[in-house]
Amino acid sequence: MTDTNTTAMEQSFWNEKKGIFSWIFTLDHKRIALLYLYAITAFFLVGMTLGFLMRLELIAPGQTIMEATTYNKVFTFHGVIMIFLVIIPSIPAVFGNFMLPIMLGTDDVALPRLNLFSWWLYIIGASMALLTLVYGPGSADTGWTFYAPYSVNTDTNVTLLLFAAFVLGFSSILTGLNFIVTIHRLRAPKMTWFKMPLFAWSLYATAWIQLLATPIVGITLLMVIAERTFGIGLFDPALGGDPVLYQHLFWIYSHPVVYVMILPAMGIISEILPTAAQRTIFGYKAIAISSMAIAFLGYFVWGHHMFTSGMSGEARVVFSFVTYLVAIPTAIKVFNWVATLYKGSIHMTPNLLWSTSFIFNFMIGGLTGLILGALSVDVHVHDTAYVVAHFHYTMFGGTIFVFFGAMHYWFPKIFGRMYNKRLSYISLTLTFIGFNVTYMAMLIVGGQGMPRRYYDYLPEFTTLNQISTVGSWVLVIGILMMIYNLVRSAKKGEIATANPWNGVTLEWQIPSPPPLHNFVKAPILSDKGPYDFSILDQVNRENLEN
Amino acid sequence: MSKHEHTPSFKSDLITFGLLMLLTAITIWASYATGGTTVLAVLVAMGIATVKATLVVRNFMHIKYDDIIYKLFIGAVIIIFGVFITLLAVDYFYR
Lengths: 546, 95
Ligand code: HEM
Ligand SMILES: [Cu+2]
Prior knowledge:
The complex is a heterodimer of chains A (546) and B (95).
Chain A: H1 2-10, H2 21-24, H3 29-57, H4 68-87, H5 90-104, H6 112-134, H7 150-153, H8 158-185, H9 198-230, H10 243-254, H11 256-277, H12 284-297, H13 313-341, H14 350-373, H15 375-381, H16 385-415, E1 417-418, H17 421-447, H18 462-492, E2 494-495, H19 536-545
Chain B: H1 10-33, H2 39-60, H3 68-92
Helix pairs in contact in B: 1-2
Protoporphyrin IX containing FE binds at residues 48, 51-52, 54-55, 75-76, 78-79, 82-83, 86-87, 143-145, 388, 392, 395-396, 400, 452-454, 472, 475 of chain A.
């Protein structure tokens, strides 16, 4: 056993070539995925530190550790890092790149050179964003949303940061394009559309949003740059522009993009749960089609971010109404996941526990979203800590939790080793508790009226803010513990087998870690779809023969 | 793959071209007939332009010969774009 697996390591993509250039100029989808993983992890740690510092500032009213203007820069950079450098690329660029070709039964994405180019665009965009910190008039203080006219008038480094976001947008577009072509052209011969794993479906829906929506924000950001540099009156009323138009254009992209963040996470949940319950997913077609429905309906609702912007009353009513439509396909997924677990033969694993934590957090995120979608309520809680808590519940408690869960699910496949499960349960527990304490307190204090983007607050908000700050300490400890466990195990962990969780999708039918061209022999595809566990014995027998 | 071997003939391309030229002539005529700057003039001009764009996409860009899935996606994109314009109009015309 151990022997076959040490040879698996020797024959894997890890050992195919050595040296830094064999990584940064690689065309192998697996290595590109890992390049993204390392970069995204680094930026996540920077973003987390900024979040930690903001919470520290908020431990007491008045100035504590930073000035008001510094706080503005910190939440701006925290937001820009977490949105453009972490969460938008996160799951597609890392797990999509690594797993999609394998799950489809092919040896790479359709356009490997474009894939490498996407990563380089990401690195160039990220470097430009970092550059805004160190030169000239100081880093941007507009918030990650760059609302005009302030973004037109502030003399901080907004122009370069906008351009960085523009370049990062192209990286995202090209990844999406690559996945669309891969899914259309490179599926294994017997794999029809409705025999694809659900993660592939979710990446497909996501890719269309990346491809169609990202150019809109790209142009919008360029318009702000044009207004700043050439004084063209587009958004600034002083120049004859319309600031509400900026918000329209920004949110026409930025609402659909929340589905770029969450759909791939939902796809991964639809992979982990069948494996954990050892049964086929409940409602395969409903989940697949609801991904496409979410991607489509996501274009109709952007105005719910603008209820207090001065938009017409008629438009506000329409947007509030259609916002509720998106809840339907989302709820379909949640019900199907729960039904998948019902009466399954559940094996408790760290990845399952991350997934159920996701469902818990995401329910809070989703339901607070419905509350915010109600026009009459939103005019009161808009721009309060309630909103900040809501989107951390969806993006952090949602997507990032699934990212961590996926790490624990696919870790043995990627690194060929197993992590310390006890430590992973402990770090998950700390992260979960810390997360919920931090943001539940912010949810409540926001409902009481504490505004967002303020470094100071009224004395009556002190207790809840202190609870939230202490929560953020527990949260950070949990995350650091998890990262320590994973980093250590990647080198020193126990050698993992090809199929440690008894999955049946194609990535579990090849050695851990995979060889350079993924498949050494034709994978087994069931006629009954991707989650047919009656082929498990056959899969495991073939794995032993490898 | 076989469906891609089916390429349009020179003759059918020429007919499409002729139709496009005819529609261009009608656009010019209609702009005089409707007064040029009226709401009706804009609607007529946009209507004819839509027909022309459809012809180009269908015949010259070969969407006619493609899978149903591409037609579906092009349809979806046009609907989405229509939704953008409609919802923006609900704001701008009622503000
Ligand atoms: C790791 C622990 C984290 C902590 C302690 C944290 C904390 C905070 C705090 C205190 C704020 C500012 C509230 C305000 O005064 O308006 C904030 C804003 C924000 N956070 Fe986080 N956060 C964390 C992780 C994340 C993650 C993972 C994401 C997304 C993936 C994220 C996205 C954002 C965004 C977009 C903003 C808004 C920035 C703006 O107002 O322009 N955060 N966060
Ligand atoms: Cu939204």
